[in-house]
Amino acid sequence: MEGRLVDQQILPASTTMKEFEYFLKSKYEIGVFTEIHIAQLKHIKRMANEYGKKMIFHVDMVQGIKSDEYATEFICQEFQPYGLISTKSSVIQKAKQKGVFAIQRMFLIDTHALEKSYKLIEKNQPDYIEVLPGAMPWMIQEVKERLNVPVLAGGLIRTKEEVQKALEAGATAITTSKRELWV
């Protein structure tokens, strides 16, 4: 595993096979797949390999399998993802154990949820944090400064200006399914 997840500032996120096909033809090397059925993983991995792409899977959104340490171990062994995203501590810990980039997703809902997330992240020590919504630059800056963990920004980023603000606030990259932002 390399020391850094990405050198690209946009991580295209696919929720459908059609979006995934656009990603495969894009200039980007690393992509994210969310809302996927377990039966599609083999096909997606094969296609990604054919195009020289690296995939990050959102374990909590893989349908047909419970998102826990056993599912994580199975996905890591069978599909060799570049990284895994989850809100769950057991998934983050197992991904790290398997040598896969562990990205802990944190939702910026309210102060209580934020403090709870801070404690989980301090305990889990993920490689990266995905902050949602990512359209809150002041929170990206706070999270990065408080936890000293690289931040990915996702959710509700709709314009190139919002991408720029998130990056200026300290995000390493933006995860987005909005194809207009991939260009």
TrEMBL record:
Keywords: Glycerol metabolism, RNA-binding, Transcription, Transcription regulation. GO terms for biological process: glycerol metabolic process; positive regulation of DNA-templated transcription. Pfam families: G3P_antiterm (PF04309). The keyword RNA-binding applies. GO terms for molecular function: RNA binding; transcription antitermination factor activity, RNA binding. InterPro entries: Aldolase_TIM (IPR013785), GlpP (IPR006699). The keyword Electron transport does not apply. Regulates expression of the glpD operon. In the presence of glycerol 3-phosphate (G3P) causes antitermination of transcription of glpD at the inverted repeat of the leader region to enhance its transcription. Binds and stabilizes glpD leader mRNA. This is Glycerol uptake operon antiterminator regulatory protein. It comes from Bacillus timonensis.
